[in-house]
Amino acid sequence: MKVNELLDMFLTFARIGALTFGGGYAMLPMLQKEVVEKKKWATLEEIMDYYAIGQCLPGLIAVNTAGFIGQKRRGNIGGFACGLGVVFPSLVIITIIAAFIGGFADMPAVKNAFAGIEVCVVVLICNAVMKLWKKAVIDAKTLIILLAVFAGATFTDLSPILFILAAAVAGVLLQVLGGKKA
Amino acid sequence: MIYLKLFFEFAKIGLFTIGGGMASVPLLQDLGVRTGWFTETELLHMIAISESTPGPLGINMGTYVGYTTAGVPGAVIATLGIVLPTMVLVLIIAGFLQSFSDSKYVKDAMYGLRPASAGLIASAGVSVAMLSFINKEAFSAHEWGAVVEPKALVLAAVIFVLTNYVKKTKGLHPVVFIAGAAVVGIVFRFAGA
Lengths: 182, 193
What we know:
The complex is a heterodimer. Chain A is mainly alpha-helical. Helix content of chain A is 82%, strand content 0%. Chain A folds into 2 domains: 134 residues, no CATH class; 46 residues.
């Protein structure tokens, strides 16, 4: 049973890896569909936490997030199953392209297809953010944190790690101070 | 031993890449200069391929460099080099978080982290949107009438409506829309190619 479950985790994340076009953020819509809705392995709130923490750690956001989800479900071995699963399709696809298809990225059909896919990814991320918004913004303070981080990340070159650390500190301070008043 | 060196070099890149695949580009540049495994032009070519295939950018780059340097075993070893050391670190921290998840301070920190996480993701969405909706040549030439890509905007609006408001289509798997967008991109020459 346990082996089957690990295989299921590996294959689910392999599917997510194969369907993610772009960086770790483009994986979010796929995680919502496969991990939150279909498999119910994690909640949307947990995925937000993993993204935030995964950004501050070395490594790739997609792999780190997969590791967190797998670890929570089946310990360290589960973490490896999900992390290696998300990587597997890249390994196969890129090796094939590197070996057989010279000039792949210069083909007109590939360029046009990816320009179309990019537009779709923008909309999918936008949909994902609207769902996250409902979960994360529970009062005026969380709304301010969201808008401040968005503005900071969009208009400055500061590292995302700074925003994550500041938001964690702000969360603790706001809750502790707010708790005293109430 | 080329395999050992590949693993070691990519483990280093994995451990020093914080905040996503693009952060690994300067490290790869440095690697190319030091080892002679690939030139600057080859690196640009690799970035283009990594961006036009599925999967995390950092992994795609590792696999590509590994393959061009030492064939299929090279591809596997470079990829594992990026992933394994950082995975160990992530799992240690994940275990740590798991045992403190009931702590009040961890919950308070999460209260601030969740909106921050949503804000960062929204910001990443905006930068992808700028790439696909804004025509850079027209922008730098100040031809304001041609700055916005109308085809991209129309496609975005259609996908937005289909994924949010049309009952029959809004529950569909995201890959359906990605495949559809790829076809529309080819038929209507979205990249002008």
